[in-house]
């Protein structure tokens, strides 16, 4: 649980079948273009999240704001998922993706509060030493958000589906970005 000036965020494991219809509306929304599921049908979303649920090194979570679904979070072990062979992982590295639900009533600062809640969740595990992300190089909005919570870009990498900006955030960098003395 993470409480901000915007409210309380909680995170629960995603139920691939129960949550598929909701996720389908999110991942096919024009705002989610970088999620690369624009043309997905409901069974495609169910299959993808069933695959993640069955994977030992990849997990999906539904984020709630004041008890209502508000974002998707994925956490993965970059030694086995997404970044295998693209960089040298260190002990305690955790990969992350997040997607904020589309809304007709945006709240100023909401997306930054979400990424902060996601990072709080990841660093709540004492084994997590560093969070790794690989957003599309052209996704300038997420680069700014990542920087705001302490991520430092390392280099561009070529993934099968995109050119990505490999970035890292240590626990100390995250705390410093939040104004917490380290």
3D architecture notes:
By secondary structure, the protein is an alpha+beta fold. It has helices at 20-27, 42-54, 110-123, 140-148, 171-177, and strands at residues 2-4, 7-13, 58-65, 68-76, 93-100, 130-133, 152-158, 163-170. Helices cover 28% and strands 30% of the residues. A hairpin with a 2-residue loop joins strand 3 and strand 4 (68-76). The longest helix has 14 residues, at 110-123. The chain is globular. The two termini are 22 Å apart. The model has no long low-confidence stretch (mean pLDDT 92).
Structure described in brief:
The protein has 182 residues and is an alpha+beta fold.
Secondary structure tally, helices: 5
Main beta sheet: 8 strands, mixed
Element string (H = helix, E = strand): EEHHEEEHEHEEH
Give the overall pLDDT as a whole number: 92
Structural class: alpha+beta
Uncertain parts: none
Using DSSP, what is the number of strands? 8
Radius of gyration: 16 Å
**How much helicity do the residues have?**
25-40%
Please give a handful of descriptors for the protein shown:
single chain; 182 residues; alpha+beta; 8-stranded mixed sheet; 5 helices; 8 strands
Helix and strand arrangement:
Blueprint: E1 2-4, E2 7-13, H1 20-27, H2 42-54, E3 58-65, E4 68-76, E5 93-100, H3 110-123, E6 130-133, H4 140-148, E7 152-158, E8 163-170, H5 171-177
Parallel strand pairs: 5-6
Antiparallel strand pairs: 1-2, 2-3, 3-4, 4-5, 6-8, 7-8
């Amino acid at each position: 649980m993470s409480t901000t000036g915007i409210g309380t965020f909680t995170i629960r494991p995603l139920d691939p079948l129960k949550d598929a219809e909701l996720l389908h509306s999110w991942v096919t929304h024009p705002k989610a273009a970088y999620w690369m599921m624009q043309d997905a049908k409901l069974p495609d979303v169910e299959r993808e999240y069933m695959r993640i649920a069955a994977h030992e090194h990849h997990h999906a979570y539904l984020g709630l704001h004041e008890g209502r679904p508000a974002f998707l979070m994925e956490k993965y072990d970059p030694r086995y998922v997404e970044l295998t062979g693209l960089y040298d992982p260190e002990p305690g590295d955790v990969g992350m993706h997040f997607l904020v639900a589309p809304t007709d009533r945006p709240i100023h600062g909401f997306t930054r509060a979400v990424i902060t809640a996601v990072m709080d969740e990841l660093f709540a595990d004492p084994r997590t030493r560093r969070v790794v992300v690989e957003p599309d190089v052209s996704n300038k909005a997420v680069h700014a958000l990542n920087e705001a919570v302490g991520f430092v870009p390392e280099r561009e990498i070529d993934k099968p589906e995109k050119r990505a900006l490999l970035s890292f955030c240590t626990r100390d960098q995250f705390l410093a970005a939040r104004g917490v003395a380290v």
